[in-house]
Specification:
about 5% strand, DNA polymerase, domain 1, three-stranded antiparallel β-sheet, about 325 residues, 3 domains, two-stranded antiparallel sheet, mainly alpha
């Protein structure tokens, strides 16, 4: 909501003081830079909207009216409303505790939206495009290692463990360290880029102007350039699309979802389980069907298994599944046997 009438309003002295306390509290509690920036920005806009009131005078009804205003006037989505609610929840619970604030009442219902992913053929086409060495390494780290774009921008030379074929993600989202994979082909490209960049001492990707870590927007520009060269300019493929594709393709290859959770750095398994909806279950079904045909499974037994609509075959474990339900089978399928 930059450049709107709210941004143009001034803050009263009381609001300035409370914003400083908010920033101090978040810093002391070692919240991430992105969280500090977002919380302070959301509360700053709220305080500007009610600059005729003291911060202590803002009630839950005021916050609800503010949310209604930005939804109706500025047409913001659920994600923006949840961001405002999260900032208010933290401020009125940790910085200026207020009994009348009930954060759960302010949260919009969360939508369940499946992320965009690339097919394996589309990924092959991407890496076959005439990419520069830097473009190849950036998209390679996103897809081959499952890194977040901020983690690519802040990748340190010493965290690339060539001997162990892995990358240490230092202080990723939530201030957590983890290890992830490092494919051989990508390792060779990173070595070439290291030489091309003049053998940097600390960071793999730096800005030529600031000599600091490459900004995530600059990294996204590199990704956009690579996508355009592969013919995906008009497709909704972003840096995070490559991370989603990494996880989904790992599942398709039969990798355990808990392993993928660790590689991605998710705190909760529920976050990783979204990729189960994108997994190609057909692969597991075809493998099992061919296995039965090869073993000449008696038709009567196959018919019984189909009628039960439940498969509990050990081969399914190779695809990270314990039970596969065939809910689409009809009586006409069974009659074919």
């Amino acid at each position: 909501m930059k450049g709107n009438e709210i941004s143009g309003k001034s803050l009263n002295a009381d609001a300035v003081e409370w914003l400083q306390k908010l920033h101090q509290t978040l810093t002391v509690k070692e919240y991430g830079k992105g969280t500090i920036r977002n919380y302070c920005q959301e509360m700053k806009l709220l305080f500007k909207y009610y600059n005729h009131k003291s911060v202590a005078g803002i009630r839950q009804t005021d916050i609800e009216q503010y949310l209604q205003y930005i939804k109706e006037v500025h047409k913001v989505g659920r994600a923006k409303c949840r961001s405002v609610a999260q900032a208010c929840s933290f401020f009125f619970k940790r910085v200026m505790p207020s009994e009348y604030i009930v954060p759960s009442n302010l949260y919009p219902r969360k939508q369940f939206i499946l992320p965009n992913i690339m097919s394996e053929d589309e990924v092959v086409r991407l890496f076959a495009a005439p990419l520069t060495l830097k473009e190849y390494c950036v998209v390679g780290l996103l897809y081959g290692c499952g890194l977040r774009i901020s983690e690519v921008s802040n990748l340190r030379i010493k965290d690339i463990e060539s001997d162990n074929k892995r990358i240490k993600v230092y202080q990723g989202k939530g201030g957590k360290d983890r290890y992830t994979l490092l494919p051989d082909e990508l390792l060779q490209k990173l070595r070439l880029l290291y030489i091309e960049e003049g053998r940097p001492k600390e960071l793999m990707f730096t800005s030529k102007q600031t000599k600091r870590a490459l900004h995530v927007r600059s990294t996204q520009v590199i990704v956009n350039s690579a996508m355009a060269k592969a013919g995906y300019k008009d497709k909704p493929f972003t840096a995070h699309t490559l991370r989603h594709s990494f996880a989904t393709h790992m599942l398709n290859c039969g990798n355990n979802i808990h392993v993928i959770k660790t590689l991605l750095g998710h705190s909760k398994i529920e976050t990783t389980m979204v990729y189960l909806h994108l997994q190609q279950h057909k692969q597991a079904y075809n493998h099992l069907w061919k296995q039965w045909c090869m073993e000449q499974q008696p038709l009567a037994e196959i018919r019984w298994l189909l009628q039960s609509k439940i498969f509990a075959h050990p081969e399914l474990n190779n695809y990270g599944l314990q039970i596969h339900r065939l809910s689409t089978l009809t009586e006409s399928h069974l009659n074919l046997l």
